[in-house]
Amino acid sequence: MLNFSGPVWRILYQSQIAAPLAAAQAPEGRFHHSGQAALYCSLSAEGAGVAIRRYVCANDPPRVLQRAQVSNARLVDLRGQPGASIVWQDIREQQGTSPKWSYSDSARDIGADGLMYSSRTRPELSHIVLFEFTSALIRADTLAIPWSPPYL
What we know:
By secondary structure, this protein is an alpha+beta fold. The chain has helices at 45-52, 89-95, 101-109, and strands spanning 2-13, 39-42, 63-77, 114-118, 126-130, 138-140, 145-147.
Protein backbone atom coordinates (compact mmCIF):
# COMPACT_ATOMS: atom_id res chain seq x y z
CA MET A 1 0.00 0.00 0.00
CA LEU A 2 1.28 3.47 -0.78
CA ASN A 3 0.65 6.73 1.01
CA PHE A 4 -0.49 9.44 -1.43
CA SER A 5 -0.77 13.19 -0.93
CA GLY A 6 -1.14 15.59 -3.83
CA PRO A 7 -3.43 17.32 -6.28
CA VAL A 8 -6.12 15.46 -8.23
CA TRP A 9 -8.62 16.59 -10.87
CA ARG A 10 -12.25 15.77 -11.66
CA ILE A 11 -14.50 16.81 -14.52
CA LEU A 12 -18.06 17.46 -13.44
CA TYR A 13 -21.23 18.87 -14.85
CA GLN A 14 -21.46 22.56 -14.04
CA SER A 15 -24.66 21.77 -12.13
CA GLN A 16 -22.55 19.72 -9.66
CA ILE A 17 -20.32 22.63 -8.69
CA ALA A 18 -21.93 23.05 -5.25
CA ALA A 19 -20.80 19.51 -4.32
CA PRO A 20 -17.51 18.99 -6.19
CA LEU A 21 -16.51 16.01 -4.04
CA ALA A 22 -19.77 14.09 -4.13
CA ALA A 23 -19.64 10.36 -4.72
CA ALA A 24 -20.21 8.88 -8.16
CA GLN A 25 -23.93 8.89 -8.89
CA ALA A 26 -24.01 5.64 -10.85
CA PRO A 27 -24.90 2.61 -8.71
CA GLU A 28 -22.09 0.68 -10.39
CA GLY A 29 -18.75 1.81 -11.77
CA ARG A 30 -15.23 0.76 -12.50
CA PHE A 31 -14.44 0.10 -8.83
CA HIS A 32 -17.78 0.27 -7.01
CA HIS A 33 -21.01 -1.72 -6.90
CA SER A 34 -23.91 -2.64 -4.63
CA GLY A 35 -24.28 0.79 -3.08
CA GLN A 36 -20.58 1.32 -2.36
CA ALA A 37 -19.32 4.90 -2.30
CA ALA A 38 -16.61 5.94 -4.76
CA LEU A 39 -15.02 9.21 -5.82
CA TYR A 40 -13.00 9.02 -9.05
CA CYS A 41 -10.14 11.46 -9.75
CA SER A 42 -7.09 11.75 -11.98
CA LEU A 43 -3.53 12.75 -11.15
CA SER A 44 -3.59 15.37 -13.92
CA ALA A 45 -6.12 17.56 -15.69
CA GLU A 46 -5.21 15.79 -18.93
CA GLY A 47 -5.88 12.43 -17.27
CA ALA A 48 -9.31 13.61 -16.14
CA GLY A 49 -10.17 14.43 -19.76
CA VAL A 50 -8.94 11.04 -20.94
CA ALA A 51 -10.89 9.23 -18.20
CA ILE A 52 -14.19 10.88 -19.05
CA ARG A 53 -13.84 10.67 -22.83
CA ARG A 54 -15.99 7.51 -23.07
CA TYR A 55 -18.90 9.30 -21.34
CA VAL A 56 -18.88 12.67 -23.17
CA CYS A 57 -21.35 13.51 -25.93
CA ALA A 58 -21.62 16.61 -28.10
CA ASN A 59 -24.98 17.60 -26.58
CA ASP A 60 -23.90 17.30 -22.92
CA PRO A 61 -24.56 20.14 -20.49
CA PRO A 62 -21.56 22.36 -19.66
CA ARG A 63 -18.76 20.78 -17.63
CA VAL A 64 -16.10 22.12 -15.28
CA LEU A 65 -12.64 21.01 -14.21
CA GLN A 66 -12.23 20.85 -10.43
CA ARG A 67 -8.90 20.48 -8.66
CA ALA A 68 -8.74 18.97 -5.19
CA GLN A 69 -6.02 18.06 -2.71
CA VAL A 70 -5.66 14.56 -1.28
CA SER A 71 -3.87 14.15 2.06
CA ASN A 72 -2.38 10.92 3.37
CA ALA A 73 -4.57 8.50 1.44
CA ARG A 74 -3.62 4.85 1.81
CA LEU A 75 -3.97 3.44 -1.71
CA VAL A 76 -3.47 0.03 -3.22
CA ASP A 77 -1.31 0.61 -6.30
CA LEU A 78 -2.64 -1.20 -9.37
CA ARG A 79 -0.66 0.78 -11.95
CA GLY A 80 0.77 -1.45 -14.65
CA GLN A 81 -1.75 -4.24 -14.00
CA PRO A 82 -3.68 -4.69 -17.26
CA GLY A 83 -6.65 -6.38 -15.56
CA ALA A 84 -7.34 -3.22 -13.58
CA SER A 85 -7.73 -1.17 -16.77
CA ILE A 86 -10.05 -3.29 -18.90
CA VAL A 87 -13.42 -2.05 -20.13
CA TRP A 88 -15.76 -3.53 -17.54
CA GLN A 89 -19.25 -2.70 -18.84
CA ASP A 90 -19.54 -5.47 -21.45
CA ILE A 91 -18.20 -8.08 -19.03
CA ARG A 92 -20.69 -6.92 -16.39
CA GLU A 93 -23.52 -7.22 -18.87
CA GLN A 94 -22.52 -10.75 -19.95
CA GLN A 95 -21.46 -12.20 -16.59
CA GLY A 96 -23.49 -10.22 -14.06
CA THR A 97 -20.36 -8.94 -12.32
CA SER A 98 -17.16 -7.13 -13.19
CA PRO A 99 -13.75 -8.70 -12.52
CA LYS A 100 -12.52 -5.22 -11.57
CA TRP A 101 -14.74 -5.17 -8.49
CA SER A 102 -12.53 -7.81 -6.86
CA TYR A 103 -9.70 -5.25 -6.76
CA SER A 104 -11.76 -2.68 -4.90
CA ASP A 105 -13.45 -5.25 -2.67
CA SER A 106 -10.04 -6.59 -1.60
CA ALA A 107 -8.72 -3.06 -0.99
CA ARG A 108 -11.79 -2.18 1.07
CA ASP A 109 -11.35 -5.39 3.09
CA ILE A 110 -7.81 -4.40 4.15
CA GLY A 111 -8.83 -0.87 5.09
CA ALA A 112 -7.38 1.01 2.11
CA ASP A 113 -8.75 4.47 1.37
CA GLY A 114 -8.77 3.65 -2.34
CA LEU A 115 -6.86 2.51 -5.41
CA MET A 116 -4.40 4.06 -7.84
CA TYR A 117 -4.54 2.66 -11.37
CA SER A 118 -3.30 3.29 -14.91
CA SER A 119 -5.41 4.83 -17.63
CA ARG A 120 -6.64 2.18 -20.03
CA THR A 121 -5.93 4.21 -23.17
CA ARG A 122 -2.94 6.20 -21.88
CA PRO A 123 -1.04 4.00 -19.38
CA GLU A 124 1.39 6.81 -18.56
CA LEU A 125 -1.55 8.64 -16.91
CA SER A 126 -2.90 7.57 -13.53
CA HIS A 127 -6.21 7.82 -11.73
CA ILE A 128 -7.40 7.18 -8.20
CA VAL A 129 -10.67 6.12 -6.67
CA LEU A 130 -11.37 6.91 -3.04
CA PHE A 131 -13.77 4.85 -0.94
CA GLU A 132 -13.92 7.38 1.89
CA PHE A 133 -13.72 11.07 1.19
CA THR A 134 -13.81 13.01 4.40
CA SER A 135 -12.48 16.56 4.51
CA ALA A 136 -9.34 15.21 6.22
CA LEU A 137 -8.69 13.02 3.17
CA ILE A 138 -9.74 15.24 0.23
CA ARG A 139 -10.78 18.85 -0.19
CA ALA A 140 -11.47 21.08 -3.18
CA ASP A 141 -8.65 23.61 -3.32
CA THR A 142 -9.49 25.89 -6.25
CA LEU A 143 -12.55 27.19 -7.98
CA ALA A 144 -13.74 25.04 -10.85
CA ILE A 145 -13.02 26.31 -14.34
CA PRO A 146 -15.02 25.70 -17.54
CA TRP A 147 -13.97 22.58 -19.43
CA SER A 148 -14.70 21.51 -22.99
CA PRO A 149 -13.56 18.24 -24.52
CA PRO A 150 -10.78 18.86 -27.04
CA TYR A 151 -11.87 15.98 -29.28
CA LEU A 152 -15.53 16.74 -30.12
